[in-house]
Amino acid sequence: MSDALVWQVIRNNSAFIRTQRGIGKRFSTEKFNLKKVNSPKYSGLANKHAIDVSAAPKGVVVSTKNEKGRPAKAVATATLSKTPVASVRSLAKNTGFSKFQKLAQRRAAAYVRSQVKKTKVPKTEA
């Protein structure tokens, strides 16, 4: 099916749609939706090519979705566990086809920043 047809079917009838009081937007919890907004541009279900970034115990997990092959083989997953800068750079290399490359880099950088342990600076008494 085409992306537009899939979006027409799932835009109002999806188990992943979430709403919050006081906020006019509708959110989505589906995989491959980097912004978590219910829209055709960011939908992971309606787009044939998509990317997902999630946290791992050490590093980030990058999943990419292709239209080639059966749905079970359409998702490729890679765990990036290098230093923070190297993880984001390798993410950019792995996802060259994605139109959401910058957004995926920002999300990966945020996950990596959250995993860096902060060193305590001893207080000096004056």
UniProtKB/TrEMBL annotation:
Please give the coiled-coil regions recorded for this protein. none
Q: Which UniProt keywords apply?
A: Ribonucleoprotein, Ribosomal protein
Can you supply a Gene Ontology BP term from the record? translation
A GO MF annotation of the entry reads: structural constituent of ribosome
Question: Per the record, GO CC terms?
Answer: ribonucleoprotein complex; ribosome
Keyword DNA-binding recorded: no
Which ranges carry the Ribosomal eL28/Mak16 domain?
Answer: 5-114
Would I find Membrane among this entry's keywords? no
Pfam families hit by this protein: Ribosomal_L28e
InterPro entries found in the cross-reference section: Ribosomal_eL28 (IPR002672), Ribosomal_eL28/Mak16 (IPR029004)
Task: Name the protein family.
Answer: Belongs to the eukaryotic ribosomal protein eL28 family.
What's the protein name? Large ribosomal subunit protein eL28
Which source organism?
A: Caenorhabditis briggsae
